[in-house]
């Protein structure tokens, strides 16, 4: 059974409207994902900065704690 031109046009318009809505939904999802990625990247950067702060070299004059006696290696006598 052949469709009339009007039926075909209506089907095309309906399909186009559904595709437009799908594209809009995908765009919204992409924007939300990008916001999440930005937030996570900022969090990772903040954690990396904090970690680097703990990894600072000792300032001149600050001595490392000496090793306990049981950690010190004694050479052969």
UniProtKB/TrEMBL annotation:
Record bears the keyword rRNA-binding: no
Pfam families: SlyX
Chain intervals for the UniProt region annotation (Disordered): 57-77
Coiled coil stretches, renumbered: 23-50
InterPro entries assigned: SlyX
Keyword Coiled coil: yes
Keywords for this protein: Coiled coil
Top-level taxon of origin: Bacteria
UniProt name for this protein: Uncharacterized protein
Source organism per UniProt: Desulfocurvibacter africanus PCS
